[in-house]
Amino acid sequence: MSKIFMKTPLVEMDGDEMTRILWSWIKEILIEPFVDLKTEYYDLGLVERDKTDDKVTVDSAIATKKYGVAVKCATITPNAQRVEEYNLKKMYKSPNGTIRALLDGTVFRAPILVDGITPYIPTWKKPIVIARHAYGDIYKAVDGKAGVGKAELVYTDKDGNKTVQEIFDFKDGGVVCAMHNTDKSIKSFARACFNYALDLKLPLWFSTKDTISKVYDGNFKAIFNEVYENEYKEKFEKAGIEYMYTLIDDVVARIVRSEGGIVWACKNYDGDVMSDMVATAYGSLAMMTSVLVSPDGIYEYEAAHGTVTRHYYKYIKGEPTSTNPVATIFAWSGALRKRGELDCTPDLVAFADKLEKATIDTIEGGEMTGDLVGLFKKEGVTPVKLNSREFLQAIAKRLA
Ligand code: NAP
Ligand code: MG
Predict the structure, then answer these.
(1) What CATH topology corresponds to 1-106+296-400?
(2) Which residue, judged by its Cα, is nearest atom 4 of ligand 1?
């Protein structure tokens, strides 16, 4: 059998622990036998990040800008315990944070749906994709405690003119908080959301609380509206999808009643909270994909979960683990499909579709990893727990 041709390499970002093991098995069992795989390889494992003073992370992001599509394995974000465990020179920043800052991206998270795993909200038939703005608001806020006295918000313009607004005149103790965002970041966020909705041909809903936060959230609403009217309205009409702005509480009510099939654009905090709610309601974090999209159309695919440390410690003791590789497989298929679309290589796009279908068919046929066995209920099918390699081999049988 001749292998599928690739024109342009993918940027491959390897990672840590159990997901690093799954990474090499996915390539060995599901990709390399079928695709003449071309990648530009960057090792983002913690050992190599330490060796290069984290330069490898920056290099991988620059390569992603050059080639346009990357696939990333989960990586350790070091804390004090990891600094000791890996004898690190310093506590490096989150690689995802570094890459996001360089690509100026928005993160989209979507569940992988399987017949037999019913969401806790059973009317959800299609994915709900959460688009989270990943800059500012309370994540970059300044806050503090107040005693008796007046708290004020002071703005000094470039000529030194001051505007002072009273926040609250405290008669007793309390707390204050000031946060910000930038028009540039909100515009990038808006474009990434509009582009992604067009890509998936799904309607886009954007929510804030502008009835209460008239200036702050009102600015988000106005920027989205302006970007839509000037740049995307015609494209949306052509694609037959709608853009809707509404209040966050209204969206929450609508989402619960919906059957899914929506991209929901959220401000930073809303996206943080709602993506965990949506992921849990669909069944499992191991079935959630994540893609970072920049406003100029650069894509980085990954699984939403971490490096599954507990399973890795079992693996290095020589015990087989039943770690779920589905989200990582979908990171690869997502990246291969996007590469195929950009390069006009339809065979590669078809392979990505086939790989995803084979993965879903394997689970629906009753073969799955341990985390899914307890969730799976389908008439006439008794779920069987496989270890990670057996599960990958079961998928590969359907690809041959
Ligand atoms: P985690 O790796 O997502 O794992 C948490 C738990 O969720 C696991 O112990 C496991 O539960 C379950 N789980 C997650 N993915 C699974 C899978 N594919 N198959 C089966 N079970 C799965 O999160 P964490 O333990 O908080 O973080 C571990 C490391 O990952 C940390 O160093 C963190 O910095 C890093 N991390 C990286 C990323 C990223 O690169 N995007 C994201 C998050 C965390 P059981 O143990 O009960 O089986
Ligand atoms: Mg969260």
Answers:
(1) Isopropylmalate Dehydrogenase (3.40.718)
(2) 308
